[in-house]
C-alpha cells in the first residue's frame, strides 16, 4: 500500500534476536528454511488465493477446494517436493480438504495397522494418489464409544470374503472427512464376526467408488452430511454419510497387524495389545497438539499486531491516543495467550518425540509405554485444543469490533478450529481417560511399582502431600523449582483426593461416574503440569541468540503464573500455597507483562507467518490496517451496485407508503 512499516517503532524496541527466535520456534534451522521457503511459495501463487472463501456458496466453495487440492498436488510433483515439503505446502495452503484425511489418517491407519504385505500393496497407490482414502469410524449413533459401533464385517468362508453391512440407521457412518464426495476408499471400522462370534471393532480397507467414473460401488449409499458452523470455514470439507448393504470385500482387506482371520475363518490375536486398533488416534492426537500452537499463534499474531496499531483514549495535549496494547487489561488477556502458543509449541515437540519413541519400542514388541502415550496424547490434545479454541475467540474480542469482520481472519479461524475440541475424541471423554490412568497410578503407589515418565513426580508423594511453598517475595516465583513444586503438589493432591473419594464407593465404576467432574479437574491439573515442566525443560537446552533465552523464560513464567492465578482455587484449597503467595504470583505476573511488552511484536514476528497465511487485515505485517479495511469494504459484492438489488421490490414501496402515511 503506502510501503511504510507502521510497526517499525515496535520492531525497533525488541530486546532479542528475532531471527534466532524464528529458528527456536520452527524447531531447527532446517525446519525454518523449509517452512520459510514453502510459505513464500504458496503466498506468491495466485492459485492459492483464499480471501474470497466467506463469499462463496457451498458448491462453488467445494469445487474451488477440489481445484486447489489438485493444483497443490501438481505443484508438489512439478517441484519434486519431499514428503516434509509437501506437508508444509498443504499446511500453508490453509484450506481443510479431503487430503488432510488421506495423508493424516488413511495412510497412517494402513501404516500402523496393516501387515507388511498390506502396506506394500496399498501404500504406493495412496502415495501416488491413485486411490484417495478416508477414515470411517464414527457412526450416526456412536462416536465417543468406539466399542459401541454397529457396522458389521461378517466372514463368509465359502467365498473368503467379508460382508460389510449397516444393520440400522444409527450404524450409518457419519462425519468422516473426505467421504462425502471424494474418497475412493476408506479404512472402515466394523465389528468382526466369524462363525457367529463377535470379536469387536476392527479396521477394513473398503473401496467405495469406481475408479473409472467415481460412482458409488453396488451396495454403497454415500453423500455429504450438510453445512457446518461458519461461512466458508470447515465447509470446504465433505464430511460424509455412508451405508453398506452387504458389500463384499476380499479377506485380505482386513487390517491384520493386530489380529487375523485365517482362510478357514479362525480368529487369531497377535501378541500385540488390542489397543493398537486405536493407534491411528494416538498418532493424530499428537499432531493435533502441534497444530494447536499453530492456530493459537496465528490468532495471537493478529491480535498483538492490531493491539499495537489500535489506539483508544489517553490523548494528551492533542497527541495520539494510547495504543490498546499498553492497557494492563489487554496485556492480561493477550500475553498469557502468547505464552501459551510458545508453551504448546514446545510440548508438541516433546510429544512428537514421545510418539516416535513409543513407535520404535512397538517395533521391538515393547508395549510398556503405550498407556503413558495414550494418556499424554489424549490429555494434551484436550487441554491444548480447549485453550486454543477459547484463545482464538478471546483474540477476536481483543480486536474489538473489527475482530468481528471476516477480513480480520478470526471468525473463520475460530470456525475451522473449534471442532478440534470434539473430533479425534471429545475433550471431556479424553480427560476421563487420563483420569483413569491417574487413578491407576495412585492405586499402585504403595505397591513398590515406581511411577515413571510424566507421572514420576508421584514417586515423591509423601513430600508432595505435605509440602508448603516457601515463596516469600514476588521474585521467588521466578524460580523453576518453586513453580514445579506448586504444580506437582496441586496435581498430586487433586489425584489423591479423587482416589480417596473413590474408595467410599462399593462399586468403583459408579464412583468414577459420580466423581467424574472432579476427576476431569485432576486430569487438567496433571496435563498443565506436563506443559509447564516441558517448557522448563526446554529452557535447560542450549538456546543461542541474543536475549532469546530471557524472552522464553519470561513467557514460561507468564504461562505458569497465569495458570496459577486462573486456578488459584485449586492451589489454595489443596493448601499448596497461601493467599499471600497467590497475590505475590499476581504481582510477579504484572511485572512480567511489562517485560514482554516491548518485545511483543517481535515475539509474534518470530512465528514467521506470511500475510497470505494469516489471512487478516488486522494482522498484516506492515500494520497499515485502516486503508486496507476501507478498501476491502468496497470489494464486498454488496457494494457492486450503489442501489441494492431488491430496492424496487422491497425498499421503495415501503418508503412510498410511509410518505402516504405521513401525509395523512
Ligand atoms: C488430520 C486431522 C483431522 C482430524 C479429523 C478428525 C478425525 C476423527 O475424529 S476420527 C474419529 C476419532 N474418534 C475418537 O477419537 C473416539 C474417541 N473414543 C475413544 O478413543 C475410545 O472409545 C475411548 C478411549 C474413549 C474408550 O475406549 P474403550 O475401549 O471403550 O474403553 P476403555 O475401557 O476406557 O479402554 C480400554 C483400554 O484401552 C486403553 N486405550 C484406550 N484408547 C487407547 C489408545 N488410543 N491407545 C492405547 N490405549 C488405549 C485404555 O487406557 C484402557 O486400558 P486399560 O484396560 O489398561 O485400563
Ligand atoms: C469436523 C469433524 C470432523 C470429523 N471427522 C471424522 C472423521 O474423519 N472420521 C471419523 O470417524 N469421525 C470423524 N468425526 C467424528 C468425531 O470423532 C466424533 O464426533 C467425536 O469422537 C465425538 O463423538 P460424538 O460425536 O459421538 O460425541 P458424543 O460422545 O455424543 O458427545 C456428546 C456429549 O456427551 C459427552 N459424553 C460422551 N460420553 C461421555 C462420558 N463417557 N462421560 C461424560 N460425558 C460424555 C461429551 O462430553 C459431549 O458433551 C468428526 C467430527 C467433526 C466434528
From TrEMBL:
Q: Which UniProt keywords apply?
A: FAD, Fatty acid metabolism, Flavoprotein, Lipid metabolism, Oxidoreductase, Peroxisome
Q: Where does FAD bind?
A: 138, 177
| Domain Acyl-CoA oxidase C-terminal per the UniProt entry, residue ranges | 480-656
**Which Pfam families does the annotation name?**
ACOX, ACOX_C_alpha1, Acyl-CoA_ox_N
A GO molecular function annotation here is:
FAD binding
- Entry keyword Oxidoreductase: yes
Provide the protein's localization: Peroxisome
Cellular component, GO annotation: peroxisome
Identify the residues that the record assigns to the Acyl-CoA oxidase C-alpha1 domain, covering every copy: 278-439
Domain of life from the UniProt record: Eukaryota
| Stretches assigned to the Acyl-coenzyme A oxidase N-terminal domain | 17-132
GO terms for biological process?
Answer: fatty acid beta-oxidation using acyl-CoA oxidase; lipid homeostasis; long-chain fatty acid metabolic process
**Residues of the active site:** 424
Task: Give the protein's cofactors.
Answer: FAD
Q: What is its main location?
A: other
Protein family membership: Belongs to the acyl-CoA oxidase family.
Output this protein's name.
Answer: Acyl-coenzyme A oxidase
What organism does the UniProt record list as the source?
Answer: Camellia sinensis var. sinensis (China tea)
What lineage, starting at the top, does this entry show?
Eukaryota, Viridiplantae, Streptophyta, Embryophyta, Tracheophyta
Amino acid at each position: 500500500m503506502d510501503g511504510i512499516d507502521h510497526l517499525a517503532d515496535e520492531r525497533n524496541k525488541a530486546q532479542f534476536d528475532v531471527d534466532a527466535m524464528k529458528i527456536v520456534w520452527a524447531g531447527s534451522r532446517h525446519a525454518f528454511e523449509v517452512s520459510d521457503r514453502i510459505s513464500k511459495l504458496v503466498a506468491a501463487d495466485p492459485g492459492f488465493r483464499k480471501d474470497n472463501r466467506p463469499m462463496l456458496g457451498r458448491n462453488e466453495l467445494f469445487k474451488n477446494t477440489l481445484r486447489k487440492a489438485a493444483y497443490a498436488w501438481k505443484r508438489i510433483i512439478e517441484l519434486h517436493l519431499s514428503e516434509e515439503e509437501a506437508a508444509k505446502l498443504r499446511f500453508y495452503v490453509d484450506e481443510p480438504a479431503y487430503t488432510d484425511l488421506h495423508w493424516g489418517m488413511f495412510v497412517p491407519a494402513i501404516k500402523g495397522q496393516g501387515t507388511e504385505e498390506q502396506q506394500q500393496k496399498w501404500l504406493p497407490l495412496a502415495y501416488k494418489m491413485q486411490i484417495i482414502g478416508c477414515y470411517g469410524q464414527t457412526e450416526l449413533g456412536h462416536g465417543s464409544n468406539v466399542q459401541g459401533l454397529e457396522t458389521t464385517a461378517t466372514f463368509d468362508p465359502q467365498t473368503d470374503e467379508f460382508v460389510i453391512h449397516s444393520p440400522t440407521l444409527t450404524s450409518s457412518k457419519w462425519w468422516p472427512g473426505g467421504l462425502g464426495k471424494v474418497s475412493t476408499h476408506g479404512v472402515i471400522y466394523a465389528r468382526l464376526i466369524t462363525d457367529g462370534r463377535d470379536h469387536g471393532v476392527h479396521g477394513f480397507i473398503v473401496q467405495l467408488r469406481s475408479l473409472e467414473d467415481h460412482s458409488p460401488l453396488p451396495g454403497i449409499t454415500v453423500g455429504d452430511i450438510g453445512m457446518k458452523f461458519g461461512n466458508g470455514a470447515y465447509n470446504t470439507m465433505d464430511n460424509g454419510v455412508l451405508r453398506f448393504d452387504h458389500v463384499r470385500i476380499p479377506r485380505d482387506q482386513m487390517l491384520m497387524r493386530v489380529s487375523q482371520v485365517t482362510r478357514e475363518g479362525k480368529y487369531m490375536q497377535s501378541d500385540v495389545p488390542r489397543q493398537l486398533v486405536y493407534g491411528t488416534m494416538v498418532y493424530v492426537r499428537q499432531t493435533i497438539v502441534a497444530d494447536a500452537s499453530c492456530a493459537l499463534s496465528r490468532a495471537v499474531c493478529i491480535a498483538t499486531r492490531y493491539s499495537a496499531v489500535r489506539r483508544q483514549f489517553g490523548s494528551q495535549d492533542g497527541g495520539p491516543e494510547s495504543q490498546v496494547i499498553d492497557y494492563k487489561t489487554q496485556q492480561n488477556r493477550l500475553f498469557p495467550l502468547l505464552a501459551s502458543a510458545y508453551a504448546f509449541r514446545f510440548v508438541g515437540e516433546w510429544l512428537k518425540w514421545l510418539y516416535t519413541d513409543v513407535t520404535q519400542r512397538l517395533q521391538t514388541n515393547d508395549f510398556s509405554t503405550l498407556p503413558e502415550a495414550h494418556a499424554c496424547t489424549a490429555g494434551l490434545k484436550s487441554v491444548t485444543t480447549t485453550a486454543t479454541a477459547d484463545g482464538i475467540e478471546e483474540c477476536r474480542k481483543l480486536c474489538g469490533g473489527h475482530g468481528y469482520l471476516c477480513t480480520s481472519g478470526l471468525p473463520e479461524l475460530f470456525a475451522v478450529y473449534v471442532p478440534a475440541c470434539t473430533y479425534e475424541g471429545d475433550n471431556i471423554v479424553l480427560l476421563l481417560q487420563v483420569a483413569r490412568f491417574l487413578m491407576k497410578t495412585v492405586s499402585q503407589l504403595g505397591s513398590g511399582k515406581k511411577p515413571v515418565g510424566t507421572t514420576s513426580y508421584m514417586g515423591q508423594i509423601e513430600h508432595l502431600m505435605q509440602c508448603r511453598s516457601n515463596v516469600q517475595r514476588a521474585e521467588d516465583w521466578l524460580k523453576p523449582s518453586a513453580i514445579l513444586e506448586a504444580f506437582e503438589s496441586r496435581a498430586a493432591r487433586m489425584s489423591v483426593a479423587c482416589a480417596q473419594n473413590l474408595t467410599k464407593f462399593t462399586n468403583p465404576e459408579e464412583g468414577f461416574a459420580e466423581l467424574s467432574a472432579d476427576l476431569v479437574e485432576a486430569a487438567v491439573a496433571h496435563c498443565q503440569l506436563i506443559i509447564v515442566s516441558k517448557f522448563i525443560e526446554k529452557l535447560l537446552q542450549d538456546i543461542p541468540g541474543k536475549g532469546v533465552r530471557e524472552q522464553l523464560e519470561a513467557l514460561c513464567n507468564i504461562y505458569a503464573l497465569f495458570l496459577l492465578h486462573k486456578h488459584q482455587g485449586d492451589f489454595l484449597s489443596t493448601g499448596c500455597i497461601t493467599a499471600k503467595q497467590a497475590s505475590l504470583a499476581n504481582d510477579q505476573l504484572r511485572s512480567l507483562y511489562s517485560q514482554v511488552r516491548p518485545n511483543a511484536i517481535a515475539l509474534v514476528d518470530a512465528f514467521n507467518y506470511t500475510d497470505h497465511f494469516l489471512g487478516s487485515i488486522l494482522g498484516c505485517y506492515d500494520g497499515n490496517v485502516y486503508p486496507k479495511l476501507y478498501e476491502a469494504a468496497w470489494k464486498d459484492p454488496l457494494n457492486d451496485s450503489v442501489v441494492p438489488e431488491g430496492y424496487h421490490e422491497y425498499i421503495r414501496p415501503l418508503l412510498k407508503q410511509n410518505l402516504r402515511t405521513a401525509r395523512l
